[in-house]
Every structure is written in C-alpha cells, then in structure tokens.
Design brief:
Layout lengths: L2 H5 L1 H12 L4 H21 L13 E12 L2 E11 L7 H4 L2 H16 L5 H11 L5 H19 L6 E15 L2 E14 L4 E9 L4 H13 L7 E4 L3 H10 L5 E3 L1 H8 L9 H12 L4 H15 L4 H10 L11 H7 L6 H14 L5 H20 L12
Parallel strand pairs: 3-6, 6-7
Antiparallel strand pairs: 1-2, 3-4, 4-5
Helix pairs in contact: 2-3, 5-6, 5-7, 5-15, 5-16, 7-16, 8-9, 11-12, 12-13, 15-16
C-alpha cells in the first residue's frame, strides 16, 4: 500500500476490500471504528487533532488498545483518551452492547446445556466469533444481570400515560418447551418523553401475574397515571380493576377493528363495517362518537345482529381516549407506540428461537428494552407536548 493510502482511512478500507473481499471485513471495520471514535473525540473536545482554538474543551491523551469480540471476529481497536477532567467514551461501543451481550449469552447457554442443534451451534460461532465455556457464561451473566436488575428496579416517578402489552417466547422448562409471557409496561412521562417502565417474564397473562407486575410498578413510585391503553385480555382487565382502580382504560382501537371482522356475516360487508368503525374512532369528541355508534348499531341491527351486539358491548371500551387532550389522542388510542420495541425484541429473539430458561429470556428482553428506553428518554424531541404552547 502506498503512503497516500496509509494516510486516508477510506482508501485503506477500499484497498483491503479489493484485495481480500469479505475476508478483510474485520480489518476494514477496525479502521472504520477507530476513525469514527477519533471524530467523536474531536466533537467532544470541540477541536480536531492539533487544532488551536478558544473553543477547545480539554485535550486528547493518546489511545488505549482494546480487543472487541464482534460478529466479524476480534477487532483490535484503539480507544481515544482525553484529559483535563473531560469524560469521554465512544458511543459506538456503548450502543447495543448490552443486548448484543445478552443475545450471545442466550445462544451460549443453549449450546452448553445441550438444548441446541448443530445448526444453532454454527450460528453461535458466526454470531460471536468465539467459543464459550460454562465458566465464561456464568461470569458474564452475573455481571450483566446485576446491571439489568438495577434498571428493572429503578425508582419511577410521575407517569402521565401507561401502555401495557405482552408477547410470547419459547422457553425450555423441565424437559419441555413452553410459551412464556413477556409483560412490558411503557409510559409517557410527565415531561413528554417515552420510557420503558418495566418488564417481567411469567407463565401466562393470568390476573395474578399482571397484578403482581402492576403492583411492583407502583411500589417503585409510579403515580399520576391518567390513562391506560392495552389490548383486551381478561387477566389484564381484572388486574387493572384491582390494582389501578379509578384510572380510565382505553382498549386499543387497532385490535378492536380487527376483532370486529370476526362478526361480519358477509365478506362484501367488511369494508363498509371498517369504515363505520373508523368514523366513530375519528369523531371530534365523545358526544359525536356516541351518536355515530348509535347510528351504526341501528344500521346493522337487522342485517348483522351478532355484529351489532358485539359493537354495543365492545366499541365503548375504545372511546375512553376522548377524555384526554385532543392533541394527545391519536398517540394514545392504540398500542402502536410499542410496535417498534416489539419488532426489536422479535429481531433478536428469533435468532435464538428457543431459550434455555426464563432467566435467559428476561436477560435478553431487558437488555433490548433498556437500550430502547435510554434512547427515548435522551431524545431531544418529546413524544407528546404536555404543556400548552
């Protein structure tokens, strides 16, 4: 490689890829990461290397070598250091680190405990770029579990709006494969930012599990909830009645719309029924929504009796949001807010497929949600404006 290439990181990377193809991706990524960390250090110090400027905030202090195990193999990174009391650690190494570690541990546990296959073992090798021993897993798990446990039990404060959701994952238990419920609470805080408030793994969505979950949130200081949004589930509804009595409950309108389809007697009626339900949900206020609901019930009372009965009993559960400020309603009337976090959970858990135990599942989901929550809470833009302009 010539001297000009040595001085240009991009040219170095391109040269490596041209010469080695995929076999040189670890070297290329090492160069890219090192350069990105140097740029970030310059941003923190508000000055490039050797630059003289009155805006400088501290000074560079060389580099500290660190080998990072990644999906591309072992990366020999040079971590930029600073001095003069300035705190700095590259965000590229922080972001996603917990969930990546948790995923590797889940895969490693499967392999070590003999509940995996040769295919999963191959995925583990490609994913982690190294082999695990039982001692490695135990040591790494203790360190990560302590960090995640502190987050799951951190003190809470005022939560304006609460959203509850659950998903199921496969777990090996006593020699059998069972579906375990992952209970998740997400909220909009008093300042308008979103936050993942809590997560737990239980055998089901029975009332006792939801009740214990909600009580733990309250014990950690959650208060001030004005509205709770969730899907319809008998266990959850019973738990809300006993643990969050007096707080209005909003049934997810998206799920209501889907549920209605099961009561439409003819396929050619579905589009019209869906439009009628949407008009109710999109009404300007509760009075108009009630009027449209009464009109719709009369419309279908003779041609679709079961649908009319179902709508009369269920649609009102999706109208509690009308008591909230108009500018908040669109984001509170469904559980869409948690869709992104569910997609992120699914993206990671499907790699593992089957968890060796409940602790492994809780570890991975907690790590993912902790990272999601930190991103939400530190965002410059709030999710909802809680004060009038």
């Amino acid at each position: 490689m010539n001297d000009t290439t040595e001085d240009n990181p991009i040219e170095q990377i391109m040269e490596i890829i041209i010469e080695q193809g995929f076999g040189g991706m670890d070297q290329a990524m090492t160069i890219l990461m090192n350069e990105a960390m140097k740029i970030e250090r310059g941003q923190v110090l508000q000055a490039a290397a050797y630059e003289r400027t009155p805006d400088r905030q501290g000074r560079a202090n060389g580099y500290k070598p660190r080998t990072v195990k990644s999906r591309l193999g072992h990366l020999g990174l040079q971590i930029p250091q600073v001095r003069d009391g300035i705190e700095f650690y590259p965000s590229a190494l922080e972001k996603g680190e917990r969930s990546e570690r948790a995923l590797k541990l889940a895969m490693a546990e499967m392999y070590i405990k003999g509940v995996t296959t040769r295919k999963v073992s191959g995925v583990l090798q490609k994913l982690c770029g190294l082999d695990f021993s039982s001692a490695d897993v135990s040591r790494a798990s203790k360190l990560l579990d302590k960090e995640l446990d502190l987050w799951r039990n951190r003190p809470l404060g005022e939560v304006a709006y609460l959203m509850l959701d659950a998903r199921y994952e496969k777990v090996r238990m006593n020699g059998s494969v069972v579906s375990c419920a992952v209970l998740v609470a997400t909220g909009v805080l008093a300042d308008g930012h979103r936050s993942v408030l809590g997560v737990a793994v239980s055998m089901s969505e029975a009332e006792v599990h939801w009740r214990d979950f909600l009580l733990r949130l309250k014990m950690r200081g959650m208060h001030g909830v004005k509205l709770i949004t969730s899907d319809d589930h008998s266990g959850l509804k019973a738990a809300l009645e006993s643990s969050m009595a007096g707080v209005p409950w909003q049934r997810c309108q998206v799920h209501l719309q889907r549920n209605a389809a099961a009561y439409v007697p003819k396929a050619d009626m579905r589009e019209a029924v869906a439009a009628d339900i949407r008009s109710i949900f999109n009404a300007p206020d509760r009075e108009e929504a009630d009027r449209l609901l009464a009109k719709t019930l009369e419309k279908y009372s003779k041609t679709a009796g079961r649908l009319a009965v179902w709508m009369e009993e269920n649609i009102p559960e999706g109208l509690a949001v009308f008591a909230m400020p108009e500018k908040h309603r669109r984001r509170l009337r469904t559980t869409n807010m948690v869709e992104r976090q569910n997609r992120e959970i699914k993206r990671r858990t499907r790699v593992s497929g089957l968890f060796p135990n409940e602790a492994s599942l809780l570890r991975l989901v907690s790590a993912i949600l902790m990272e999601v929550s930190e991103e939400w809470e530190s965002a410059d833009k709030v999710y909802l404006k809680m004060k009038e302009d």
